[in-house]
Amino acid sequence: MNAIILAAGKGTRLFPLTEHIPKPLIRVQGVPIIERQIAFLQDVGIDEIFVVVGYLSQYFDYLVQRFNVTLIYNPMYDTYNNLYSMFVALEHFGDSYVIEGDVYMRKNFFRNDLRHASYFSGFKRSIANEWILENEKGLLKNIWIANELGEGLKKFEQGANIMCGVSYWDKSTARIIADAIRGKVQNSGSLQQEEVRKLYWDNIVLELLPDLQIELIPLATDDWYEIDAYKDLTELKEVLVQHIPEVSPEFSKAI
User: Fold this and answer.
1) Taking a C-beta distance cutoff of 8 angstroms, is the pair 27, 248 a contact?
2) Do the Cβ atoms of 27 and 251 come closer than 8 Å?
3) Prior bond to 16 cis, omega within 30?
4) What was the pLDDT predicted at 62?
5) How far apart are CA 197 and CA 194, in angstroms?
6) What is the distance between the alpha carbons of residues 198 and 175, in angstroms, rounded to a whole number?
């Protein structure tokens, strides 16, 4: 089992905080988000860790010596969404966790006993821009992208179960997805290329969903926080103040 951490993006919604530091290296309680992820992976025996970097990639170099991870450079980080980050890591994809580099994990919910493709998912009240997952007897039945639902979003006004940015993929499922990703990136003509560049790698899963069987692993609401914008940092700070007596000066300064 290995892990692929996607950490190439610019984090523009967190500018100016991310103007001089990649989003996964933002410190929470004095520890960069990605370091916490890596430590949790290693705690459950997952030592083969690949970090896909792009924006300000040099700032991740210290992770190689400190944690013995492997860095993979995404030269298209500024023109593609994270589809291309998965594309450059496909040779390592299989029996793999795939983790968004901006996911702050309050607890270690990584497991080393997974055998079937799985999304980790939990309930959140605020679901703008999120991917909503429909659960049917523990399996993923459908995915809705909140900002594409229009009036249909009203049915989720009290909240919904969403992707948390952590998933696991067995080798056979990963092979199907990898073939589709290669097809998208390598075979798209010039007219399609602009649309392909907008894709998240989970868009490929969505396209293949009828042919895949994906389990859903439930999380508590406050088990994780995906840091996309300042409001997410503010919410996380409030949670940590409630659960931890003191917030580090580094984190307070980041807010």
Assistant:
1) yes
2) yes
3) yes
4) 97
5) 5
6) 22
Of residues 61, 65, 78, 107, the one with CA closest to residue 8: 78
Q: What is the DSSP string of 138-158?
A: TEEEEEEEGGG-GGGGGGGTT
Quote the CA–CA distance of 5 and 70 in Å, as a whole number.
10
pLDDT digits (tens, 9 = 90+) for 187-246: 865 556 888 899 999 999 999 999 999 999 999 999 999 998 878 888 888 888 766 443
One-letter identity of residue 139: L
Closest listed residue to residue 77, CA positions, set 51, 92, 57: 57
CB 175 within 8 A of CB 94: yes
Q: Residues of the chain with pLDDT > 90: what percent?
A: 71
For residue 140, count CB atoms less than 10 angstroms from its CB and return exposed for 0-12, middle for 13-18, buried for 19 or more.
Answer: buried
Q: What is the pTM of this model?
A: 0.92
143 vs 16: CA distance, rounded Å: 32
CA 139 to chain centre: 20
CA distance 56 to 1: 28
How many helices (H) does the chain have, and how many strands (E)?
8, 13
DSSP helix/strand/coil, 225: strand
